[in-house]
Design a protein that fits this description.
The chain has a single domain, classed as Poly(a)-polymerase, middle domain (Orthogonal Bundle), CATH 1.10.1410. The chain is built from seven helices and no strands. The protein has helices at 17-30, 37-46, 55-68, 79-96, 117-120, 129-133, 135-157. The longest helix is centred in the C-terminal third of the chain and has 23 residues, at 135-157. The chain starts with 16 loop residues before the first helix and ends with a helix.
Length: 158
């Protein structure tokens, strides 16, 4: 049998996939039957093609909004308003050059999602930290936001 070799310098990427699944299950249990949060996420993610934004960025924004906007406001009839909220949130994050990681230091985490204490009490991690120190990247991100917004408008209204 082949043996894996582990060295002290090996770094494993941290994954929050299980916590994300638990969060979305929590939302599904709490949400009204005609909730459109997943459609908002899918449509928004579809518009990311050709931009520098990752689906993880979008998923983080949607999770923040699901944690702050009452689930009763995610019904199909509010679909366009929620898409607009997603775009406004992203734009605000770009302007501030700050998007907090959803799990680190989030004091509004649903009680049934148990995270290690050091993650619960950690200072929030800024996923847009690179924009703070790189004006060119910030300008590019704002341009790509305009492209993203145009693509979303075309997708929804045409």
């Amino acid at each position: 049998t082949a043996e894996a070799i582990f060295t002290p310098s090996t770094i494993w990427a941290e994954s929050y996939a299980v916590a994300e699944v638990k969060f979305f299950r929590h939302v599904a249990r709490q949400a009204p039957h005609d909730t459109s949060h997943l459609k908002c996420l899918q449509l928004s993610a579809h518009t990311l093609v050709g931009t520098g934004f990752s689906t993880y960025t979008l998923k983080t924004i949607v999770m923040h909004l699901l944690n702050t906007i009452p689930l009763s406001s995610w019904r199909r009839r509010e679909f366009l308003m929620r898409l607009q909220d997603i775009m406004w949130y992203l734009h605000g994050c770009l302007e501030e050059k700050r998007l907090d990681h959803f799990f680190f230091g989030n004091e509004n985490m649903p009680e049934d999602i148990v995270l290690p204490l050091d993650i619960q009490t950690a200072k929030p991690i800024n996923l847009f930290q690179y924009l703070v120190h790189d004006p060119t990247a910030h300008t590019k991100a704002l341009r790509e936001f305009s492209v993203l917004q145009d693509q979303l408008i075309r997708l929804v209204f045409y």
